[in-house]
Fold these 2 entries.
Entry 1:
Amino acid sequence: MTKFSTIRREWMKDPEFRKEREKLRPEFELASALIAARKRAKMTQADVAEAMNTTQSVIARLEGGGQKPTIKTLERYAQATKSRLKIGLVAA
């Protein structure tokens, strides 16, 4: 069986793949930040869901990066994980 790292290395040779991957970077970074906050708080997705008065599947979708949450949702997630939401803009 081929390792994912080997496949990814091959894909990265394709300029179109790299371009599309770069478009998704903000979603991946947000998903990583959410997961990191939850782990720092030593919480499960179910714990965060309970603190936010929602379901574990909603948290899974947030952390999966497949949707763009509202600032209000991010604030609730931050509060649930005892984190502080910080939003910034950087030069393109």
Entry 2:
Amino acid sequence: MMTLVSIVVTSYNKALYLEQAVKSVLAQTYSNIECIIIDDGSTDNTQEIVKELIAKYPHVQYFFKPNGGISSARNFGNSKANGEWIQFLDADDWIHEDKIRNQLECLQKFANQEVFAYSDYQRVYVDKSNQITKRISNQVGNSSREDLINRLLICPDFLASSPFPLLQQAMLFKKTIFDKYQFNENLKACEDRELMIDLLIHDIPFFYTPMLGAYYRKHAANLTDNGLLMRESYVRYFEIVKHKHQDLINLNTDSLNLLIEKTIELKDNHLLSRVSKLIKFPIHILDGKLKISNPFMLKAFYTIRLALPNFLIYKHLRGPRSQKIFAWLSK
């Protein structure tokens, strides 16, 4: 008998994209699938779209819950899933028609273990009219546990020379994993990184499926484009890592240094105070030109920074006139 796979489609105000996500689930070449839509308190026309979908596909399940964020929606979806295997899919993304079949072929011989699979994926960039402007395929490849952990500690992703390796949309899990582990509902972003660090640290087996398994849509409403939310999430993520896995915190020096730089530039004293408790001194800021040896020096520099206009410290914040003045002075 074919084992049941649950695909949980989480949506918050993503009515525009929901139908494509659901159709990609129902088009799977592996047939024993349940499709569960979790509406995380949407205020757009998501419910109207869902009614149309259920009229066409009565076996699609729908659950509404108050808004609680992506972690809350995924955890709730897991509680409604009946499958032996589970996949999470954001409503603005979609999956390859052979994804589940190919990943199950890798995993079925490990049916009695807690295990997960991951695959390559493609970033699909769209404009305001939802027209595709660019596609970038990310070949993750077969990585070691140590390499995956190290990469998960690098954020933002532009600091790394490799793509983000464990995109949720490109993964398939043995559902019993979630009897012990959950997405952290205190995180608005980076929840996938935090969960995967836990699984890797606890030696959950994993397998790489060499295929473009998922398509991640990049558009104006992506949470990852919300700078304030992402900075808060990065700091909270690193705080959790330090609390749960003390020996890992020194692996993310570049990320923490960048956060220090950004919080100073934006005069965010609250986040600066939190990040300063995570870093190991000395650090180098302002393109490596200034060495900060201890928390007292950091506080002193921040006090000076508050008194100086932006253009005196940061090149990228100088207007054309300021650039000309600095060019003349440099001569």
